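Sequence design from tokenized structure. All designs in this work follow the same two-part layout: the structure record, then the generated sequence. An example of the structure record is given first.
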């Protein structure tokens, strides 16, 4: 046996006992392996919370969006003009959605956000079903107010929760995943509505126990409304309130209270930033609602599609284009963040708004229906950016105890401008200027052109203001 083989044998004898001892050593509760398993479980739970809130967001958009597909039978049975219908679609919903969001958000910054979301889901689900019982404009208007009031509980509370679950470099993707709920919901609203309308196209009245005879569009509201009650119960049973992180400390060394006054003071401290953020994203969102709210009417009136065909086609476009757009925006925000851009969210919003202008204006101006579908597909992709981008910008700047309230104030402004004014502006231009319902496509183009230019300009200006605000808050943390 040579010297080299003796050396190898000696090394093996030395190493093997240590390896055997290591293999039989029990894993400590505090070992790296245990910590990694715990971290993976925690991460999976955090994504579960996002997913269940996304499902709630899906239901909320099904409940609010299905109205636009049933525009013709509702107008006929309730004897409404385009302007009256736009009030049901826009103002009736956005009024309480925006206004009720402020006091509900104040509770969310102090009390259990999970319970607030669950109660809101159940409330708007019953209100949606109540839309199916409406016999006139006033009853439908009040039911839509209820839908808005219930849905006001979801987004501000969720935005506060998600910032406690994820670090900033993952916040964009989490908000992007949540945001796709809006577009899965809108797509399903068109698909489900199209299917039900097609299924019941030869049926005018349906008889229900205790309720009596109702129209098929009324039955549709009941079908899409009630599943939310089960989701509310699931949330209460499976989701726990997360620990609050990132609380702001005042100059006196005490935690700043979660009050309406302090949220206003914080907004005033960064007034240029929030002006560009609130108004810029509101104009951007106006374009989204003009597309979602009036594209069905455009295709039915100008290209001869029926409600069922329109529902299927737009439903597929929204499910593919809008969901991929929201996820892309979330990725883009994180991509900018990892490269050191403190204005990552505002910057992503500005890019999306600029890219949306041309396709959102042109899809109503081309004669070829397939080219129109191609253009609205591109428009729908970029129309999704304001939801994750505006939310990420707010959460990255705002301290924990004020996040829900600042988010609610943004939603107040955004929905009054985007949903309340935007959808009604399309109807008013059609009714008062063109005085011809077939010209709704031109009205969409006018609103989108003006809103797109204003939104892009404000978000461009907002990037610098936002970077300055981030520096101010970082400096305050080190005082």
């Amino acid at each position: 046996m040579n010297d080299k083989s003796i050396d190898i044998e000696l090394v093996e004898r030395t190493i093997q006992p240590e390896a055997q001892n290591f293999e039989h050593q029990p894993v400590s509760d505090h070992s790296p392996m245990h910590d990694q398993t715990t971290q993976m479980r925690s991460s999976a739970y955090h994504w579960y919370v996002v997913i269940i809130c996304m499902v709630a967001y899906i239901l909320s958009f099904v409940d609010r969006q299905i109205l636009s597909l049933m525009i013709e039978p509702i107008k006929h049975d309730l004897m409404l003009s385009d302007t009256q219908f736009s009030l049901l679609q826009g103002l009736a919903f956005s009024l309480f959605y925006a206004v009720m969001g402020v006091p509900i958000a104040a509770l969310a910054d102090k009390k259990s956000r999970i319970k607030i979301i669950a109660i809101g889901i159940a409330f708007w689900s019953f209100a949606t079903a109540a839309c199916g019982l409406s016999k006139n404009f006033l009853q439908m208007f009040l039911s839509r107010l209820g839908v808005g009031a219930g849905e006001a509980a979801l987004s501000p509370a969720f935005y506060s929760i998600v910032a406690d679950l994820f670090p900033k470099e993952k916040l964009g993707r989490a908000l992007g995943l949540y945001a796709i709920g809006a577009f899965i919901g809108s797509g399903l609203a068109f698909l489900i509505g199209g299917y039900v309308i097609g299924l019941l196209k030869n049926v005018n009245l349906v008889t229900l126990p205790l309720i009596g005879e109702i129209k098929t569009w009324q039955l549709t509201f009941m079908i899409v409304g009630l599943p939310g009650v089960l989701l509310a119960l699931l949330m209460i049973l499976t989701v726990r309130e997360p620990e609050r992180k990132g609380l702001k400390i005042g100059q006196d060394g005490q935690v700043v209270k979660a009050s309406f006054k302090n949220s206003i003071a914080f907004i005033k401290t960064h007034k240029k930033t929030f002006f560009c953020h609130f108004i810029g994203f509101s104009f951007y969102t106006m374009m989204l609602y003009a597309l979602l709210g009036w594209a069905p009417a455009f295709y039915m009136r100008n290209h001869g599609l029926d409600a069922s065909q329109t529902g299927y086609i737009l439903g597929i476009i929204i499910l593919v284009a809008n969901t991929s757009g929201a996820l892309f925006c979330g990725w883009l925000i994180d991509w900018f963040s990892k490269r050191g851009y403190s204005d990552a969210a505002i910057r992503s919003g500005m890019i999306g708004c600029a890219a949306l202008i041309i396709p959102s204006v042109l899809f109503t101006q081309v004669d070829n229906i397939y080219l129109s579908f191609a253009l609205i597909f591109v428009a729908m992709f970029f129309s999704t950016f304001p939801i994750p981008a505006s939310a990420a910008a707010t959460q990255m700047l705002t301290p924990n105890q004020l996040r829900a309230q600042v988010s609610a104030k943004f939603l107040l402004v955004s929905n009054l401008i985007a949903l309340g004014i935007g959808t009604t502006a399309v109807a008013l231009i059609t009714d008062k200027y063109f005085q011809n319902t077939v010209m709704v496509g031109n009205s969409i183009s006018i609103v989108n052109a003006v809103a797109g230019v204003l939104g892009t300009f404000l978000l461009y200006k907002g990037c610098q203001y936002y970077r300055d605000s981030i520096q101010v808050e970082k400096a305050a943390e080190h005082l």
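The domain at 49-477 is CATH 1.20.1250.20 (Growth Hormone; Chain: A;). We note this feature because it recurs in several other targets discussed in the main text.
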